[in-house]
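#struct-help
A.M.: can someone run this one for me? Single chain, 534 residues.
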Amino acid sequence: MVAALEWPEPAISIDRHAGGASLAFTAPLDQLLSATEVNEWAWQGAAVAVQALPLPQAPGYPTTWDFDSALETIRCFAAAESNQKAMMLLAIASQHGLPAFYDDDSISVGAGQGSRTWPLTELPANLADVDWTGLHDIPTVLVTGSNGKTTTVRLLAAMFGAAGKPAGFNCTDGVFIDGEQVETGDFSGPSGARQVLRDTRVQAAVLETARGGILRRGLAVNHANAGIVTNISPDHFGEYGVHDLARLADAKLVLARAIGADGVLVLNADDALLVEKSANLACPLAWFSLDHMNPRLQMVRAAGGMSCGVADGELLLHVDGLAHRLGAVARMPLTIAGSARYNIANLAGAALVAAALGIAADVIARVLSEFGSHRLDNPGRLERWQIGGADVLLDYAHNPDGLRGLLAVAEEIRTRSGGRLGLLLGQAGNRDDKAIRELACTAAAARPEWVVLKDMAGYMRGRDSGAVPAVLRDELLRQGVAEASVHTILVEVDAAVALLEWARPGDVLVLPVHNLDARAELVSLLDARSALAS
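D.P.: on it. Structure tokens below:
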């Protein structure tokens, strides 16, 4: 079919995995939707040939039994999708050494402050008339990992801002340009990245690059100056061919393909899988750890490389053979007096990326000493209130490792206060029962005195209301949580309010909240109750 369409000879990829196989091939950039039709048509034809079973035929789509008819249908798709002028503009941009971004609606050349964007329906009549003056790239960072992505993105944006470079970033909460939120929702994929890269106010781009976006759409950029993988932990197994931790790491390490010899990929030296996988990476690497004496960091420093780790309670940055003390971690607001160890890791990783991109150590240290002192610095991530003598922690923790870290912070607070632990618990419907039970096991290990189970509106993903809480409840009881301590209130905000009503002075409430509307409503309620209490 590709030959009949007169496309270039394709490279073909077959990725076999526990759930079957993923089939892919290369195609012209302005023919990718048509290429998906070719892929499905070819698969259906093979299935019919192998199984001798008829497949249903949707009207208007290519037939599996008549090649000429299928070719005519796909040619119509390809003709409608083709945009030769846009492809020529991309080729000229490449000759000028400029990044370019193409999608269903627009094409842009350059990035951020050095970019120009045209709607596909309004391309220049004569490409020779395009003024290339002032078009340029900007510093670009890719951020991925199982936990800590959004916090790391926000930290890096703050560091760029403190260094005099207005930054744009995309994350699971939306798109932000120099502190202004321009989109709300999960924009942690390529579409959010393109919005950042096309905004002419942006002088540095920090792009949250989630696993789902990588597996569905690839990376938003062909080249990045730096990248970071915060950690790898079990989550999202069973989707897009990822069935184990090693394959999840491979998906996230796709970032390395965008890092050239002049860039750097920052990795977590406390993550054994990342250390193992790093042996296969060709790009320059830098490492962070909770321990300055981590063997990987010692080896990197001995070779003159970059590292960041904790030494005698301080964050110590090594760049170009020089050591920079960034301050006591216990005094950095994001660590909550050093109890939030996962945030110490986020601080170390962000500091190392910033240093690799030329941000001065004193600027980095200043941001670390201030970031998190206001809840709006990092909304939805370890936000804190004191209401009626109870400590309230609101966070995005969405997998066992994330919840474990959050509950460790709660335990330190509870130990000092002598109070009880109350927990709000839910999980997205696209996790299998095993993953849901693992989350419940993590919760049960913290010995909560009161648990309220919820649905996650917007994350039901095929499950009926109450189905996930039922699995969570069953596992909590199996793990020894008292039946009288487990309650189900499906509406997220109502469930959180029930915990507030249960609490008394000294208690600690842990509220993982995921739906953005629910979070906004709950934050307003918590602000009001906090103000009333004071």
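A.M.: thanks! The longest helix spans residues 32-51.
D.P.: also worth noting: The radius of gyration is 25 Å.
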